[in-house]
Design goal:
Oligomer: single chain
Number of domains: 2
Structural class: alpha+beta
Radius of gyration: 28 Å
Order of helices and strands: EHEEEHEHEHHEE
CATH architecture of the largest domain: 2-Layer Sandwich
């Protein structure tokens, strides 16, 4: 393809969507393609959409696009916004970047990395709070189940709703901490 401007970039991109149900990912792919085609700074020249296929419990579909970008910055912006699984630059053979353009792209990348890092840190903190709250709930549920007297693991499981394989390791943990004791096949609270 002959590019009209020396700053233009002609590239092939593959965008993928995975999920379930099949109709949802197909509709979402259609919406993504509409969004891509409506953007300024690049033009979709060719588009090939592939049917969704099932892999294990999810469906996956992808589209192959050939796009002319007005400049390298628009290509990078497209990558940030659509997260294609692959980009192949078809033309030009050599790229020339201005120092300022490269600095802008690096700063955009750093900003996005910092935002992602902040989301990861916030998610870890929330998960820690949820883990701590869950441990307390489990501890209290077991204590409530044992307030009426000694019970087998199966009886504790029925009283708390905690499935047996998970409960066994929890009971062993609390027994190791001295919070409960096991006599025979029954557990009871340790008097404090």
């Amino acid at each position: 393809m002959r590019l009209s401007d020396s700053r233009n970039i002609y590239a092939r991109a593959i965008v993928e969507i995975a999920g379930s149900p099949k109709e949802f990912i197909e509709k979402t792919m259609g919406l993504l393609l509409e969004h891509i085609e409506a953007q300024e700074g690049y033009t979709v020249k060719k588009k090939k959409r592939f049917k969704a296929k099932k892999y294990d419990k999810v469906f996956s579909t992808f589209s192959e696009l050939e796009i002319v970008f007005s400049d390298f910055y628009k290509l990078i912006q497209f990558c940030f916004e659509t997260l294609p699984s692959s980009i192949e630059i078809l033309e030009p053979q050599r790229l020339e970047l201005r120092r300022e353009d490269l600095a802008d792209m690096i700063n955009d990348l750093l900003l996005r990395l910092h935002k992602s890092d902040m989301v990861v840190k916030e998610t870890r903190a929330k998960n820690k709070l949820l883990e701590d709250a869950n441990k307390l709930l489990v501890k209290n549920a077991i204590a409530m189940a044992l307030r009426g007297g000694a019970k087998t693991a199966e009886e504790i499981s029925r009283a708390t709703g905690i499935k047996q394989p998970n409960l066994d390791s929890i009971l062993a943990f609390y027994e190791g901490r001295g919070l409960i004791k096991k006599e025979g096949n029954k557990y009871s609270l340790v008097a404090r």
